[in-house]
Amino acid sequence: MTPLVSTFIKGLKDYVVMHVDNQKIITAMNIKTIYDQLSRSMLARVSKSYVINVKQIESVDNNTVYIGKNEIPIGNIYRESFFNEFVIK
């Protein structure tokens, strides 16, 4: 059995939607709580509402991460650390 691969997580107030292997899993948890519980080696917080799996990134521009057909905005607060940690390396 192959493990599930999360492409990104979207926060919606007190819920998160995890996009996993072409499925959506909704759970009653805020994005900060779930981000604190997951491995940081593959995940990056790119905005107040999004955590992404960096191994799933197809392309990046200054304001957006592209994963499949999804365009995920990069927040101003998170931009510098995201680029330093995952893009410039």
Cα gyration radius (Å):
12 Å
Helix content: 10-25%
Strand order, sheet with most strands? 3-2-1-5-4
Number of helices: 2
**Which series of helices and strands comes N to C?**
EEEHEEEEEH
Give the low-confidence spans.
Answer: none
Q: Strand fraction band?
A: 35-45%
Distance between the termini: 33 Å
Number of strands: 8
Query: How would you characterize the largest beta sheet?
Result: 5 strands, antiparallel
Mean pLDDT: 88
Which structural class fits the helix and strand makeup? alpha+beta
Shape: globular
Tell me what you see in this structure.
This protein has helices at 31-37, 76-87, and strands at residues 6-12, 15-20, 23-27, 43-45, 50-53, 59-60, 64-67, 70-73. It has 89 residues and is of the alpha+beta class. It has a 5-stranded antiparallel β-sheet with strand order 3-2-1-5-4. It is globular.
List keywords for this structure.
89 residues, alpha+beta, 5-stranded antiparallel beta sheet, 3-stranded antiparallel beta sheet, 21% helix, globular
How is the secondary structure organized here?
Blueprint: E1 6-12, E2 15-20, E3 23-27, H1 31-37, E4 43-45, E5 50-53, E6 59-60, E7 64-67, E8 70-73, H2 76-87
Antiparallel strand pairs: 1-2, 1-5, 2-3, 4-5, 6-7, 7-8
